[in-house]
Please model this.
Amino acid sequence: MSATSHHRPKRNPNPRARAYVVAYDIVDGSRRKRVHDLLLDFGVPIQYSVFECRLVATDRRRMLQAIRPLISLPGDALFVAVLCAACERRTLRVGGPVTETDTLVV
Model:
């Protein structure tokens, strides 16, 4: 069962929530799974190590605070990109799971 089939956070209705793309590369399998499971509380996976999240500032801080201890070995990396409203409207996805976002699925 894929993560998206049983765990889909609802779109954050807060108008101050911003769209983020979160990607990670973790060398250790158990920590990689912990990061993946943790991110399920904040967004939806669009690929195994890439998540789409809508967060207010406090949720973004909570997410980063929880992930930072897991990014601990050489070779580990975390990438968090915020999408401005105009960029979010121009975002396209081809294939992959359907999520509850403003993303256009082609």
The first strand starts at residue 18 and ends at 25. The helical segments are 3-6, 29-39, 57-67, 85-89. Confidence is low (pLDDT under 50) at residues 1-9, 100-106. The longest helix spans residues 29-39.
